[in-house]
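Issue: copy button drops trailing tokens. Both records pasted manually instead:
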Amino acid sequence: MYTRRRRRYFLLMGGCLILFVSAWTFVRFWSVPAAVALCVVAMVIPPIAAMVGNARGKDDHWWDDPTGDPQSDEWWDELDGKKPPQKRDSRK
């Protein structure tokens, strides 16, 4: 999952760099407003790339790692629906 997110991030950031560099390398010779528009589009891409790079996938379960505390792990497994609820002694 991490590789897929990283690839998407670098593709978006590569597209951002291509837009920015091409805007001021050769597009400005044809049209300065078009070059400015390319820069505006390139300006919007980095925040989107950050969101895509940090987005969690359907199968990305980094929070499922055991904590090391058996009672806590059992409680979280019960909350997540991995184990059926255990009957507790009501006399305690």
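Record 2 (pasted manually too):
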Amino acid sequence: MKDTIEKMFSLGLGVVVAGKEQIEKTVEELVKKGEVNRAESGELIDRLVKKGEEALRQIETMATDRQSASRDDDTQWATREDIDRIHERLDALERRDRKDE
């Protein structure tokens, strides 16, 4: 029983990264071992796929939120225009220094 629970837990975690074919293969293995009956297997597959899709949506939402938060913090990143202006100023200073020599 402990092995079955561990396998189901691992399967649940793996749903996020596993494809439907892998889920079906694992559930079929459980059916063959008698740990899940054939009648329940289809429902179990559907439930695990739905949980995997929901987990994936949650991960995508967290990643989007984290990305938005990192853009909204106090860090100010240089834009291409900022860098171009700095290059122009450096070029002007170098030309001035060459004239002074």
